[in-house]
């Protein structure tokens, strides 16, 4: 960030000298193009039709392909996968004699698999294309010459065009603002699509272009813009406008960016500067990094193993072939070794062996599951649709369903270890309610905040728990916890009810204030009512919002820069100070006093506005009221205001500070309000200074402005303070509790200050009383010497090591620690030499809260956790400031709520409310993880079971590369006969139902522990496949050895043996998958058993085809195998023998080493949960993950505490 | 809908101990009888195997491989007499097989060397591309039937007598009916077959269409393993216990160059086919194993219930 700014500054100064230089030599301008400069002839688009001034058109395309490039590009993409490339090579070789298979049997499955993937690509791309076209065909009003404007589609707009944009329209390109419907040339812009901020921004045109405000005036308008080259910096723009033989410098406030919207302004005129892909928003569009799930990465290793196996057995085969060819084949007269060809030459066994290696590599290719990738893709898309369709994750208020934006991370959802959450808008609603205030040292506002409510509730629990002590001590502890659980759920219920109740009591959005002393004009009766008046005026005037009349009620809603400001304005309105109009220079307030019936309209002339920045933490306006009195009104962070109070202004400081602390504890956001009266002369001198600073253009402008503002913002008189509640979202504490029980660690990263963050932590049970809070902060940097960086670092390091020591020495197993760190400290802690200590400490803590962090730090913390622990991280956030974090984490979740779409666009999943995260992870994540893991394991099993039989047969066929199966069987094996069951496993499998998942969040731990895709399991499945292949091959070979296999005396030929073997494989693998599944709907039944039926059906139909196609398989089922009992007998025994060990294994596991879900399944199966409530709750509490955070942890800590106390009493009694 | 909410009605079978035990028991209950039945069936089959490849060579030639080859490739009369004793009553039909050993009919070069189109109809007689290296004669005429498989057709012959009674061998209907009807054309006659200077095996009567050359049809069904039997014919009379059967065979086929054995096999067949103890043993073993597992699980379940 900083580097970018420095660069921008450098460039600006550079350009500035350049323009000075140019002013003197206007003649040479034509050829004098400085590097990195862009030349635009305003209103002369025809000059931009040929090079070098031909810039890119305004046509945008976000598609990956177009009609021409689709085939080559998409095919290239497909064959970047190693497996696909291998199959392509195999298919190409199958056209030569080297291949053991017919070409069609190699090409068809490949074409199918690749075609399917490409069809998916094409579909996705066509959606993008349609969207692009919609944008490209939007109409905009463009100057067509002679002062006539006409509509033209966006894509035809050129650089240099003059465009007229009307209210609520999007800007078609990056424009230079020339004039607007306001006479001072400002306009309001909503940039939600760019940065996710919903507030309006003001843009202001140059004064020279102000007269260009009707269509006629553009008849003869020309000008030349020189500016920077297209770049992705949204907040910088360097350039100048040459107009009327003068040069004016341009800055970002004259630039209207594409994809932002004109608001509150009737129309604007602008010159197109950047078009299409040159525009800032398009330059900014970064491809979100493609993420792959852990399972998929591990799958690659398994594929490598299989490749190694493949190469190994191919080598064995080819060596075997070479040896046989050299020593034995010359004697095999029936092969006519005297007539060799290139692939078979006993005189050159080495060469033949080499050719055979290639043959073998193709032959055993069935070890590599060609359809694995495509099956996984299909499965994931279907899983994603289930996530999208889930009614329990549909938000009725906003109508937003959950959305899996990338489907390839579904199973990663089941393996999350750490959640990194934004606070505002994620945990909280980002809806501010004006709740309390302190005016002139008196606190107002009787309603309590949610945190207070929660605290009260907790107290109630504690009282409840005291009852516990009345129970006899020696009673069954299990019973006790069961009881408590029941109670806890009651409490949860209660919370929900009260939460619902909360909604009704606030008729005015953003205003929950309740105090009769102030409402309805009663404030006049309070002592110091003049201070009250000032307080309300500051609320109403010291702001940058725009009022919008609400058609129905006649009152106003406000487009405010921050939700706090909106809440203030609403509050002011409710108090009787309605802000209703803003002009360029004035704010109009309608004041209502109860004694005089009608409202009084007052005008306040705004002289200066000193804006809010996060650095200044305050904003001020200087106004002149109707009496000519100049006032400086300021609101800002309490610490900032307090240090700027004048001696006389500290009257209420003590009381206000007390109130502020109270508010802080109650989890409210606070601001202090103050004012200062100014003398005319005082103001005039200062204003001079200020204007000078403002007029200065250059690197130091900001600094000068700041210094000027600082001069004025002193000697304040304190008026009071406000407290605004940042409401928690619905269900957040419960959700966090569940997630904690599921064993997830939750980190909160927030831009808020420490106190607020801690309060919110309490409110959502991330923190509780009795938790040891480790606060790591820096000393006040001002008090440090200049070379303090080292000292600061040392200080932090000390804190970290002390804390780690403390945790290590802690004996109580129930002790929980919370780490709270602020952004400044974090900046040091994230440096390379310290970050591991920091991480080590953070991992030991039950909850971590980072406050005052910048977006970049959020991303850095995420990366630290991701790389430092190697565990899966999930980042959740809603605003543009969370984008970095969302993209950095293994999984990014965006909240598709109030704040723009930026986070959602960058995310992998979007949900409407934080509480849906629970279902997304605990239900869908858990399911998807298990599904994919089982599916992949099964895939390897089935292909090994099949592929190795080919190898064994080679040993009996002189390693000649002959396969025992018909080509068609093998072709259908992966594509049809075994694909649907495994897809149904991947899509529909549920080990336990969704309710059970939610009731037993501890089940989720199976994912992060990776119980279903660890190497034991993978190798187990591979071994199972190996065993199956042995059984299938050798049982069949021995059964069909040499004797007759039918009553008719016929002996078995290769086709008979091959078909029987293949039948056995189909049975064995499909029975295997049936054993793997634990959830059969009609779909699974249909697919699994249907696959077996399909095989027989295929065999029958294949036998009906002309023998030229079917060869020896002609009527094989009907004539040869069907009537032979031994065929069916062999199928039966091989199938059973293949599955017997697996069956024995899983029954053994279930009986003696059950996993959590086994137990739950059994309980459900016996319907014990209905019959035996007691046992059910007991199991539930047993299955609870030991947590240190969350609601439940709070209750448990309390119980422990009480028990301990009782124990003491008891022992004391005995002792006495 | 219930589908999109993933709440379709489903059966969720789980392996409770009872289920496991009953499944294992069921398997053993089904498998053991099947095994016993197939063992009985296998015992029912009477089989006579006679290896004759060495015995049918003059003693002088037996010592050395080259001498053996020399003998078999010479044009002398190679008749050989064998006598077989019937160990048990053999009910007709008694199937006569020849068994070859170490003969890789499943070699890729061999398997591929045939032309199904050519075999099927006269019109595609020249379709010999797949038949290399035995596709055309040296002067370019197509061979029918072409290919290595047909070229290396087995050519030993057997005739049987019991005492003075000649036993007829029925050589019809030894191949698959579908092969005769649909794969080997009634209008396809052998031409240019075995005309080269190298003779692989049997010569075919060029006046009989391929669909009636059943020896060829049987031979063309390549075997899966290097040891294989092929049907030669049927004896359709009862063979009593201790009957002595005189076999007059012509030992023509060269298995000596690759050290292959030749055996003559007489066997009866029932529903199980020929003699096959393995299937029965396998069934009994698996059944027994399941019973054992069922027992183990029961014991464990009783001793240590969860």
Automatic annotation (TrEMBL), chain A:
The keyword Transmembrane helix applies. One of its GO terms (biological process) is phospholipid translocation. InterPro entries: ATPase_P-typ_cyto_dom_N, ATPase_P-typ_P_site, ATPase_P-typ_TM_dom_sf, ATPase_P-typ_transduc_dom_A_sf, HAD-like_sf, HAD_sf, P-type_ATPase_IV, P-type_ATPase_N. It comes from the Eukaryota. ATP binds at residues 422-424, 565, 612, 635, 669, 750-752, 852, 858, 881-882. One of its GO terms (molecular function) is ATPase-coupled intramembrane lipid transporter activity. Keywords: ATP-binding, Isopeptide bond, Magnesium, Membrane, Metal-binding, Nucleotide-binding, Translocase, Transmembrane, Transmembrane helix, Ubl conjugation. Residues 40-107 form the P-type ATPase N-terminal domain. Residues 904-1154 form the P-type ATPase C-terminal domain. Mg(2+) binds at residues 422, 424, 878, 882. Its EC number is 7.6.2.1. It is an enzyme of class 7 (translocase). The chain crosses the membrane at residues 83-101, 107-123, 301-323, 353-374, 939-962, 968-988, 1018-1041, 1056-1075, 1087-1105, 1125-1144. This is Phospholipid-transporting ATPase. The lineage of its organism: Eukaryota, Viridiplantae, Streptophyta, Embryophyta, Tracheophyta.
From TrEMBL, chain B:
GO terms for cellular component: endoplasmic reticulum; Golgi apparatus; plasma membrane. Pfam families: CDC50 (PF03381). It is found in: Membrane. It is a multi-pass membrane protein. Its main location: membrane. Residues 116-128 have a biased composition (Polar residues). InterPro entries: CDC50/LEM3_fam. Residues 113-136 are annotated as: Disordered. The chain crosses the membrane at residues 20-41, 281-303. It comes from the Eukaryota. Keywords: Membrane, Transmembrane, Transmembrane helix. The keyword Phosphoprotein does not apply. Belongs to the CDC50/LEM3 family. This is ALA-interacting subunit 3. It comes from Morella rubra (Chinese bayberry).
């Amino acid at each position: 960030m900083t580097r970018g700014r420095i660069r921008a500054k450098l460039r600006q100064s550079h350009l500035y000298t350049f323009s000075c230089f140019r002013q003197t030599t206007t003649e040479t301008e034509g050829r004098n193009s400085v590097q990195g400069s862009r030349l635009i002839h305003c209103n002369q688009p025809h000059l931009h039709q040929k090079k070098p001034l031909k810039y890119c058109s305004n046509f945008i395309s976000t598609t990956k392909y177009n009609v021409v490039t689709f085939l080559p590009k998409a095919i290239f993409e497909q064959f970047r996968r190693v497996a696909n490339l291998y199959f392509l090579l195999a298919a190409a070789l199958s056209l030569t004699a080297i291949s053991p298979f017919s070409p069609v049997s190699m090409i068809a499955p490949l074409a199918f698999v690749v075609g399917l993937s490409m069809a998916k690509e094409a579909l996705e791309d066509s959606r993008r294309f349609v969207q692009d076209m919609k944008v490209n065909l939007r109409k905009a009003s463009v100057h067509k010459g002679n002062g006539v404007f006409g509509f033209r589609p966006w894509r035809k707009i050129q650089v240099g065009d003059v465009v007229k944009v009307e209210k609520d329209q999007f800007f078609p390109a990056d424009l230079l603002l020339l004039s607007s419907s306001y006479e001072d040339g400002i306009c309001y812009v909503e940039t939600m699509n760019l940065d996710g901020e919903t507030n309006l921004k003001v843009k202001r045109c140059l004064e020279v272009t102000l007269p260009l405000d009707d269509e006629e005036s553009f008849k003869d308008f020309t000008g030349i813009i020189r500016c920077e080259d297209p770049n992705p910096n949204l907040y910088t723009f360097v350039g100048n406008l040459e107009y009327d033989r003068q040069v004016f410098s341009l800055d970002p406030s004259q630039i209207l960016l594409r994809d932002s919207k004109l608001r509150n302004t009737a129309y604007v005129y602008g010159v197109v500067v950047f078009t299409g892909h040159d525009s800032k928003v398009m330059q900014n569009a970064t491809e979100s990094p493609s993420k792959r799930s852990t399972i998929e990465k591990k799958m690659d290793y398994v594929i490598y193993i299989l490749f190694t196996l493949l190469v190994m057995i191919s080598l064995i085969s080819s060596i075997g072939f070479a040896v046989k060819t050299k020593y034995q084949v010359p004697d095999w007269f029936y092969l006519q070794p005297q007539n060799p060809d290139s692939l078979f030459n006993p005189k050159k066994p080495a060469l033949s062996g080499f050719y055979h290696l290639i043959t073998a590599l193709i032959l055993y290719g069935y070890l590599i599951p060609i359809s694995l990738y495509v099956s996984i893709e299909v499965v994931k898309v279907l899983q994603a649709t289930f996530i999208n369709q889930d009614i329990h994750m549909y938000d009725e208020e906003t109508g937003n369903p959950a959305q899996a934006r990338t489907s390839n991370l579904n199973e990663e959802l089941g393996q999350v270890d750490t959640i990194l959450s934004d606070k505002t808008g994620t945990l909280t609603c980002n809806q501010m309610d004006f709740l309390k205030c302190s005016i002139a040292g008196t606190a107002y506002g009787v309603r309590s905040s949610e945190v207070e409510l929660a605290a009260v509730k907790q107290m109630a629990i504690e009282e409840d728990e005291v009852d516990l002590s009345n129970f006899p001590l020696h009673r069954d502890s299990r019973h006790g916890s069961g009881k408590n659980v029941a109670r806890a759920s009651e409490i949860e219920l209660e919370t929900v009810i009260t939460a619902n109740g909360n909604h009704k009591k606030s008729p005015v959005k953003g205003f929950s204030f309740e105090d009769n002393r102030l409402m309805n004009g009663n404030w006049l009766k309070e002592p110091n009512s003049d201070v009250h008046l000032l307080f309300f005026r500051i609320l109403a005037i010291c702001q940058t919002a725009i009022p919008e009349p609400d058609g129905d009620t006649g009152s106003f809603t406000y487009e405010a820069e921050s939700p706090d400001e909106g809440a203030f304005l609403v509050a002011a309105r409710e108090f009787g100070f309605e802000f209703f109009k803003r002009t360029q220079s004035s704010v109009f307030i309608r004041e209502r006093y109860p004694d005089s019936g009608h409202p009084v309209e007052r005008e306040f002339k705004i002289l200066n506005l000193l804006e809010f920045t996060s650095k200044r933490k305050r904003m001020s306006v200087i106004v002149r009221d109707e009496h000519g009195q100049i006032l400086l009104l300021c609101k800002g962070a309490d610490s900032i205001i307090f240090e700027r109070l004048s001696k006389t202004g500290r009257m209420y400081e003590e009381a206000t500070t007390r109130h502020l602390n109270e508010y802080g504890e109650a989890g409210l956001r606070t601001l202090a309000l103050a004012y200062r009266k100014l003398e005319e002369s005082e103001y005039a001198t200062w204003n001079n200074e200020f204007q000078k600073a403002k007029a200065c253009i250059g690197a130091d402008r900001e600094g000068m402005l700041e210094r000027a503002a600082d001069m004025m913002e002193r000697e304040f008189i304190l008026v009071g303070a406000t407290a605004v509640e940042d409401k928690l979202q619905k269900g957040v504490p419960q959700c966090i509790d569940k997630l904690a029980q599921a064993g997830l660690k939750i980190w909160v990263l927030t831009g808020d200050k420490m106190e607020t963050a801690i309060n919110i932590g309490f409110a959502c049970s991330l923190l509780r009383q009795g938790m040891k809070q480790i606060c790591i902060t820096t000393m006040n940097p001002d008090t440090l010497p200049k070379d303090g960086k080292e000292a600061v670092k040392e200080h932090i390091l000390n804190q970290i090591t002390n804390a780690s020591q403390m945790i290590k020495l802690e004996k109580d197993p129930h002790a929980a620690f919370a780490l709270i760190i602020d952004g400044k400290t974090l900046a040091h802690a994230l440096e390379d030499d310290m970050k591991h200590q920091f991480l080590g400490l953070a991992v030991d803590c039950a909850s971590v809260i980072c406050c005052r962090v910048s977006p970049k730090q959020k991303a850095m913390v995420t990366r630290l956790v991701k790389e430092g622990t190697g565990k899966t991280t999930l980042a959740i956030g809603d605003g543009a400031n969370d984008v970095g974090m969302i993209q950095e984490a293994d999984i990014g979740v965006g909240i598709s709520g109030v704040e723009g779409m930026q986070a959602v666009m960058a995310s992998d999943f979007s949900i409407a409310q934080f509480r849906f995260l629970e279902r997304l992870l605990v239900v869908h994540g858990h399911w998807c993880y298990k599904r994919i893991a089982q599916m992949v394991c099964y895939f390897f099993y089935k292909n090994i079971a099949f592929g190795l039989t080919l190898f064994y047969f080679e040993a009996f066929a002189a390693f000649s590369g002959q396969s025992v199966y018909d080509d068609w069987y093998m072709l259908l094996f992966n594509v049809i006969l075994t694909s649907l069951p495994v897809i149904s496993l991947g899509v529909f499998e549920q080990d336990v139902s969704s309710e059970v998942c939610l009731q037993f969040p501890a089940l989720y731990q199976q994912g992060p522990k990776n119980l279903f895709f660890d190497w034991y399991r993978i190798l187990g499945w591979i071994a199972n496949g190996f065993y199956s292949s042995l059984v299938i091959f050798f049982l069949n070979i021995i059964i069909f050895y040499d004797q007759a296999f039918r009553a008719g005396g016929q002996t078995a030929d290769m086709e008979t043996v091959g078909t029987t073997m293949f039948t056995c494989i189909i049975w064995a693998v499909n029975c295997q998958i049936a054993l793997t599944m634990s959830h059969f709907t009609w779909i699974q039944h249909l697919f699994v058993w249907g696959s077996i039926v399909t095989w027989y059906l295929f065999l029958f139909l294949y036998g009906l085809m002309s023998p030229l196609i079917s060869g020896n398989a002609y009527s094989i089922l009907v004539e040869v195998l069907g009537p032979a009992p031994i065929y069916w007998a062999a199928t039966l025994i091989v199938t059973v023998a293949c599955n017997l060990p697996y069956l024995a294994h899983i029954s053994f596991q279930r009986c003696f080493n059950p996993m959590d879900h086994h137990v739950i399944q059994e309980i459900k199966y016996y319907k014990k949960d209905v019959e035996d409530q007691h046992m059910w709750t007991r199991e539930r509490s047993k299955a609870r993950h030991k947590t240190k955070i969350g609601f439940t942890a709070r209750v448990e800590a309390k119980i422990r505490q009480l028990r301990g106390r009782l124990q003491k009493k008891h022992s004391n009694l005995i002792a006495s | 809908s219930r589908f999109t909410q993933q709440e379709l009605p489903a059966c969720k079978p789980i392996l409770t101990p009872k289920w496991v035990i009953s499944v294992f028991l069921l398997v053993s209950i089904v498998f053991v009888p099947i095994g016993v039945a197939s063992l009985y069936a296998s015992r029912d089959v009477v089989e006579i195997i006679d290896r004759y490849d060495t015995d049918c060579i003059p003693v002088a030639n037996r010592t050395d491989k080259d001498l053996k080859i020399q003998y078999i490739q010479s044009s002398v009369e190679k008749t050989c007499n064998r006598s077989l004793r019937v160990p048990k009553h053999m009910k007709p039909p008694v199937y006569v097989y020849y068994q070859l050993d170490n003969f890789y009919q499943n070699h890729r070069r061999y398997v591929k060397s045939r032309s199904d189109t050519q075999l099927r109809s006269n019109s595609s007689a020249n379709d010999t591309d797949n038949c290399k290296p035995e596709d055309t004669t040296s002067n370019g005429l197509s061979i029918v039937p072409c290919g290595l498989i047909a070229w290396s057709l087995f050519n030993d012959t057997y005739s049987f007598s019991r005492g003075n009674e000649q036993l007829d061998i029925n050589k019809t209907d030894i191949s698959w009916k579908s092969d005769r009807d649909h794969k080997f054309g009634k209008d396809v006659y052998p031409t240019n077959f075995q005309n080269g200077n190298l003779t692989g095996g049997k010569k075919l009567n060029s006046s009989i269409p391929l669909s009636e050359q059943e020896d060829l049809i049987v031979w063309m069904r390549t075997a899966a393993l290097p040891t294989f039997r092929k049907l030669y014919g049927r004896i359709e009379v009862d063979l009593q216990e201790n009957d002595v059967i005189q076999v007059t065979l012509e030992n023509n086929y060269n298995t000596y160059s690759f050290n292959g054995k030749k055996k003559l096999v007489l066997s009866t067949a029932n529903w199980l086919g020929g003699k096959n103890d393995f299937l029965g043993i396998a069934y009994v073993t698996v059944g027994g194993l399941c019973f054992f597992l069922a027992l183990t699980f029961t014991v464990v379940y009783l001793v240590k219930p969860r």
